């Protein structure tokens, strides 16, 4: 077993253990492997280990990888865009990705819907909540959610699937859980209103257990699978 396959197995075991502790089935939680800045060879190792869902933060890098793997015949992969999205990059996301996790304004959502090719399934989208009210992060407040959700749900080439958040780091499990629970309450309310909603993208390496206990259905894990990232200087 190579390092990435071993790491994936360890992360899956941690997800399973966290789910068991709170009485959930591990199958309820999707593992999204965050492959930003990682080479195609690393993703290929994860694919060989049976993984199929990958998250990318940078539009052009992600599109290049999607194209490369499609050329190799890997047509069963799921590609999630999880970074901030500028208007001038929306077409690339609409034309290549399966999911976008970072909807925080109607203008971007409308562009994605208008630019989604008709021969492709509707783009799955999550509304990003700035749950810790950090100036450095994108996302809307919970108070703005109802209005944006109604507008996004009405767009013909998008499917509203749920919510995403990146909480501020917290040192204690109790505080992590309290913040995650705020997201879970909002998610359950949204799910009651829209029958397409089924995904709460919440939890990374440091707060995964608390997120799962609160009700997350998707955790985003990068370094624990692929190792430390090499950012361009």
UniProtKB/TrEMBL annotation:
<dbReference type="InterPro" id="IPR029066">
    <property type="entry name" value="PLP-binding_barrel"/>
</dbReference>
<dbReference type="InterPro" id="IPR001608">
    <property type="entry name" value="Ala_racemase_N"/>
</dbReference>
<feature type="domain" description="Alanine racemase N-terminal">
    <location>
        <begin position="7"/>
        <end position="229"/>
    </location>
</feature>
<comment type="subunit">
    <text>Monomer.</text>
</comment>
<feature type="modified residue" description="N6-(pyridoxal phosphate)lysine">
    <location>
        <position position="36"/>
    </location>
</feature>
<protein>
    <recommendedName>
        <fullName>Pyridoxal phosphate homeostasis protein</fullName>
    </recommendedName>
</protein>
<comment type="function">
    <text>Pyridoxal 5'-phosphate (PLP)-binding protein, which is involved in PLP homeostasis.</text>
</comment>
<dbReference type="GO" id="GO:0030170">
    <property type="term" value="F:pyridoxal phosphate binding"/>
</dbReference>
<dbReference type="InterPro" id="IPR011078">
    <property type="entry name" value="PyrdxlP_homeostasis"/>
</dbReference>
<dbReference type="Pfam" id="PF01168">
    <property type="entry name" value="Ala_racemase_N"/>
</dbReference>
<keyword id="KW-0663">Pyridoxal phosphate</keyword>
<comment type="similarity">
    <text>Belongs to the pyridoxal phosphate-binding protein YggS/PROSC family.</text>
</comment>
């Amino acid at each position: 077993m190579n390092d990435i396959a071993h790491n994936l197995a360890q992360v899956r075991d941690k997800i399973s253990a966290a789910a068991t502790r709170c009485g959930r089935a591990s199958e309820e939680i999707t593992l999204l492997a965050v492959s930003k800045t990682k080479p195609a060879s690393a993703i290929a190792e994860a694919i060989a280990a049976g993984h199929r869902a990958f998250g990318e933060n940078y539009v052009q890098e992600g599109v290049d990888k999607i194209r490369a793997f499609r050329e190799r015949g890997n047509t069963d992969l799921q590609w999630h865009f999880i970074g901030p999205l500028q208007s001038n990059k929306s077409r690339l996301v609409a034309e290549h990705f399966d999911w976008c996790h970072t909807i925080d304004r109607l203008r971007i959502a409308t562009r994605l819907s208008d630019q989604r090719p008709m021969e492709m399934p509707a783009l799955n989208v999550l509304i990003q909540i700035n749950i810790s009210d950090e100036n450095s992060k994108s996302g809307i407040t919970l108070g703005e959610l109802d209005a944006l959700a109604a507008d996004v749900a009405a767009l013909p080439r998008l499917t509203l699937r749920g919510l995403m958040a990146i909480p501020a780091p917290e040192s204690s499990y109790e505080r992590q859980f309290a913040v995650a629970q705020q997201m879970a309450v909002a998610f359950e309310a949204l799910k009651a209103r829209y029958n397409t909603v089924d995904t709460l993208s919440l939890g990374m390496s440091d707060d995964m257990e608390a997120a799962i206990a609160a009700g997350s259905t998707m955790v985003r894990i990068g370094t624990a699978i692929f190792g430390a990232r090499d950012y361009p200087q």
